[in-house]
Write a structure and sequence with these properties.
Number of strands: 12
Number of domains: 2
Strand content: 15-25%
Shape: globular
Order of helices and strands: HEHEHEEHEEHHHHHEEHEEHHEEH
CATH class of the largest domain: Alpha Beta
Number of helices: 13
Bound molecules: manganese (II) ion
CATH superfamily of the largest domain: inorganic pyrophosphatase (n-terminal core)
Helix content: 40-55%
């Protein structure tokens, strides 16, 4: 489908997107850039940021990757590619370089950015655009892309994608697509090209995207699994739990791997806030019509969260920040999950 010698690895970006990308690159080439991704970054966000940073370095542009706190699951990627990241606290207020954001468009997931005055130059994202979104000078979004990394791989001229960038983008794609299991042909094609450029194997990429959990982590997950609340609704399993792990998505993914249909995991934050990861089995989301982002939004609404603070994400993978008591929130989640199951059944 892609003839040898094509200029770009894939078609997750349009010609207009490439025009916007070129304009943003011109501005950043003159002024430098701060590249960032959502708080608690994943392999997709870091991979996409790293590939952009290498493109800047190649042009002699001063570009730093700046993030919120990391979690250990991205350590193998960071170490393998020697990705250097800064924290927002390391960047002085006087640093006026414009900001490039990858893998989110939600201000609530960008705590460091919202405290600063820097111009938002460009956003590259594959998530649903909610009510509260960044207003960058250039927006590049494609919700049919499964990862931000494949959009970036479609924006950069292939001759500027080196081995390290290719590996980072491949790991980003693998990380967001459940080891390519969820990927359609367009994504697979980009991934294969990246694999070839990187000189790495699929196994190496999977090892970086899905590092083995440490024994301590396995023990912690098993401990938390003892307290999962679950319900068999029709023939679907709804499971809700609390987690003290560094990211609620870790437990949510493990429970979904057991084939629970709808999963929500709450992580208590300061001031009565809960960070919540929602997961729906891939098949039920894409073929069954049960949508994680919809459940996140409705549960947020039921808990009195105002418009623009009702979570979001993908149909199989979503998140929300809800303020309230644990019991009140879990009740709202079960209710929203049952309704989503009923609605999906009604549609079929
Ligand atoms: Mn992503």
């Amino acid at each position: 489908m892609h003839a040898r010698g094509e200029r770009f690895l894939g078609y997750m970006a349009s010609a207009a997107d490439r025009g916007r990308f070129g304009n943003a690159m011109k501005i950043a080439s003159a002024r430098g850039a701060l590249i960032t991704t959502h708080d608690v970054p994943d392999c997709d966000g870091l991979g996409a940021a790293f590939a952009l940073q290498r493109l800047f370095f190649r042009r002699g542009v001063l570009a730093d990757i700046v993030t919120g706190p990391h979690i250990h699951l991205t350590d193998p990627l960071v170490e393998a590619l020697e990705i250097r990241t800064k924290r927002w606290s390391d960047v002085p207020d006087s640093d006026a370089r414009p900001i490039i954001v990858v893998d989110t468009n939600t201000p609530a997931l960008l705590n460091g950015v919202s405290r600063r005055e820097n111009q938002i130059l460009m956003v590259i994202d594959h998530h649903q655009t909610g009510l509260s979104t960044l207003k960058p000078l250039y927006m590049i979004e494609n919700q049919s892309a499964i990862s931000a990394s494949e959009i970036v791989a479609s924006l950069i001229d292939r001759k500027f994608i080196d081995r390290k960038s290719a590996l980072a983008l491949a790991v980003g794609i693998a990380g967001d697509s459940e080891r390519l299991n969820d990927a359609e042909v367009g994504t697979l094609h980009i991934f294969e090209s990246l694999l070839m450029i990187s000189g790495s194997s699929k196994k190496e990429v999977d090892g970086l995207a899905y590092p083995d959990l440490s024994p301590g982590m396995v023990a912690a997950i098993l401990e938390e699994m003892k307290h999962v609340e679950s319900e068999l609704y029709g023939n679907k399993v709804i499971a809700v739990a609390a987690s003290r792990l560094e990211n609620p998505a870790i437990l949510a993914n493990e429970i979904r791997n057991m084939n629970a249909s709808v999963v929500a995991v709450l992580s208590e934050q300061m001031g009565g806030w809960h960070r919540i990861s929602f997961r729906v089995r891939f098949k039920e989301a894409h073929k069954g019509g049960i949508h994680a982002n919809d459940i996140a939004r409705r549960a947020s609404e039921a808990c009195g969260m105002p418009e623009g603070m009702r979570g979001g994400g993908h149909i199989d993978k979503a998140g929300a920040m809800i303020r309230g008591g644990y019991c009140e929130i879990t009740k709202a989640i079960f209710e929203a999950a049952r309704e989503a199951i009923d609605r999906a059944a009604g549609k079929q």
